[in-house]
Specification:
Elements lengths: L1 H8 L13 E4 L11 E4 L1 H8 L12 H4 L5 H13 L5 H8 L4 H9 L23 E3 L3 E3 L4 E3 L4 E2 L3 E2 L6 E6 L2 E6 L3 E2 L1
Antiparallel strand pairs: 1-2, 3-6, 3-10, 4-5, 7-8, 8-9
C-alpha cells in the first residue's frame, strides 16, 4: 500500500508538501485496509497528529491549499487539525471555506475525541490510537496462550479497548491478546 500512497502523493506529504521522512498514516476510525483510509505524511505532521509533539499552528498554515484536496482522508485530517487549532482565529475561516460530502464530514467528526472519552496512553504518556504500532517494554506471560511475549516485541495495528483506558489489543505470535498500556511504548 505504501507504493500506492507514494504514487498518489507524488512523493510529498499530503498535508504540508514536505518530501522528507514520509510514512503511512491511518485516518481513524477507519481500519487502514484501503488506500482511501490512509494518507502519506512527513514525520513533522505525524509527530504533531499523534501527540508526540505539541501542535504548531504556524506549521498548519499549509492547510490553506490542502483543504482543496480530492482525497477524502486528506480533507478529514485537515478539518480535524483546523478544528483543534481553531482558537488561533484563521483556521475558522478555512473551515468555513471547506466543502465535504456528508459522509466525509461525519468521518471527520467521528475522529474528534469526546471530552469524556477514554484516552489510551503508553508508559511514557504518549496517546495511543487505533492502528498504531507499539513495543513491549517488559516480558509478559500470556494467560491461556502458553507463551511469554518478550520485551522488545513489536505489536502492529493495535486496537483500543473502548471501555478501559489501560487495555489495548494486538497480535503477538499470531494470537490476539489484551495488553496493559503500562507495558508498551509507541
Amino acid at each position: 500500500m505504501i507504493k500506492q500512497l507514494e504514487r498518489r502523493s507524488n512523493g510529498n506529504c499530503e498535508l504540508c508538501g514536505s518530501t522528507e521522512e514520509l510514512s503511512q498514516f491511518i485516518v481513524s476510525p477507519k481500519s487502514g485496509n484501503s488506500i482511501d483510509d490512509n494518507i502519506h505524511i512527513c514525520s513533522t505532521c505525524k509527530d504533531q497528529l499523534s501527540g508526540e509533539k505539541e501542535m504548531n499552528p504556524n506549521h498548519w498554515r499549509c492547510l490553506n491549499d490542502t483543504i482543496w484536496s480530492e482525497v477524502d482522508a486528506v480533507k478529514v485530517v485537515s478539518w480535524r487539525v483546523l478544528n483543534e487549532i481553531k482558537d488561533e482565529g484563521w483556521p475558522v475561516d478555512l473551515m468555513d471555506m471547506m466543502y465535504m460530502e456528508e459522509e466525509t464530514e461525519k468521518w471527520a467528526k467521528d475522529g474528534i475525541p469526546d471530552e469524556n472519552a477514554i484516552i489510551h496512553r503508553d508508559s511514557n504518556g504518549v496517546q495511543l490510537n487505533a492502528g498504531d504500532s507499539v513495543v513491549l517494554i517488559k516480558d509478559l506471560k500470556v494467560k491461556g496462550g502458553g507463551f511469554t511475549a518478550k520485551r522488545g516485541t513489536h505489536v502492529r495495528n493495535i486496537t483500543l479497548v473502548h471501555d478501559n483506558a489501560e487495555h489495548i489489543e494486538g497480535k503477538v505470535e499470531g494470537q490476539r491478546i489484551v495488553i496493559m498500556t503500562q507495558y508498551v511504548k509507541k
